[in-house]
Amino acid sequence: MGRLEINMRKLKELNGFSLGKKLTIAIDIDGTIADSSGVDFRRVSRKPDEILKAKPIKGALKAVKRLYKEGHTIVFYTCRNYASKLMTMKWLKKHGFPFHHLEMKKFVAHVYIDDRAINGCSWKRIKESLETLSILIGTVT
Known about the structure:
The chain is an alpha/beta fold. The protein is built from four helices and six strands; from the N terminus they run H-E-E-E-H-E-H-E-E-H.
């Protein structure tokens, strides 16, 4: 039995945890779906449209659209200041990212996709991991 399967079984045993096939997937913005290297965050409070300079990271849009289409709840999160929330939403919509909600801090989710994660990986590897997770969820329920 693999480590992921063991962890999924443990999660199922937790009181009140519903292990369905649809997941809440938390996706960080900067460095994960947005290349923000050209954004000067020191200027954002005075010039909020500075955020619009960020470019989508290759493969991110396609992956997020697929997860959304599969029925997962997509919640983007960022540690940007609250004043930049409207511009952040504008950026997501401008580039066609489907989502259910935007949080300005981390929150509880089934899966986190974040560039600062230990053992961070490509969108291809994330897709493979989520497919494996979906298979395991189906065998546990």
